[in-house]
Specification:
Blueprint (H helix, E strand, L loop, with lengths): L2 H27 L15 H24 L8 H5 L8 H22 L1 H4 L1 H8 L1 H15 L14 H22 L20
Length: 197
């Protein structure tokens, strides 16, 4: 396996982990209870959500670093950090770099969540959707071999990106439609409100 192929694989695994991370985040925001609902056992969803982010961030760092050791890619450190004049597919590399910085921002702000306050942190956390969009466009449009070939959207790697993007879209629509009910302070709830229609 070449360094370019390893880089591509690291990027794909990071994308899958970030997809899982966002899906878990949506479950957490909907107050999904794994005891009451499937799988009917206690799962550390919050811990898994955090660890998928940390591992994905590590793979996102590894993704371009592997290009530095490639004999064919001709990337320099500056091309990895700020790929404004990268040797291959500059636009899509810039989207990938923006996705990295967005994920880094989300992870760092989550780490200092208590200092930011829950309300501000929640607003900042929406950057994860921008990161996902950038990541999916980067993954769909870039040639994993860095040979400037047009993307084949039916290629297995591209289909994986498409499935991950679709999962995020469907789950986000579900989350928007399913808003956890907030109880008003000092109100009584009529038993009739809970009976099936």
């Amino acid at each position: 396996m070449t360094a370019v192929e390893l880089s591509s694989d690291a990027g794909l695994v990071a994308m899958v982990l970030l997809t899982v991370n966002i899906l878990l985040g949506l479950l957490l925001s909907a107050r999904y209870n794994t005891l009451r609902s499937w799988p009917h056992k206690r799962l550390p969803v919050f811990d898994i959500h955090n660890w998928t982010a940390y591992i994905a961030l590590g793979l996102i760092v590894l993704h371009p670093v592997l290009l530095l050791v490639s004999e064919t890619a001709h990337f320099r450190v500056i091309d990895v950090l700020f790929p404004i004049k990268s040797p291959h597919q500059t636009l899509y590399n810039n989207l990938g770099a923006l996705a990295f910085y967005s994920v880094l921002f989300v992870v760092v702000t989550s780490y200092i969540r208590s200092r930011l306050g829950s309300r501000l942190w929640k607003k900042l956390h929406y950057v994860s959707y921008a990161a996902a969009a950038l990541l999916f466009v980067h993954g769909l449009e870039i040639d994993p071999d860095l040979k400037e070939k047009a993307p084949d959207y039916l290629d297995g790697e591209k289909v994986l990106v498409e499935v991950c993007a679709l999962l995020i879209i469907v789950a986000t629509v579900w989350r928007i439609r399913y808003q956890p009910k907030k109880r008003a302070v000092g109100t009584t709830v009529n038993k009739v409100d809970y009976e099936p229609v």
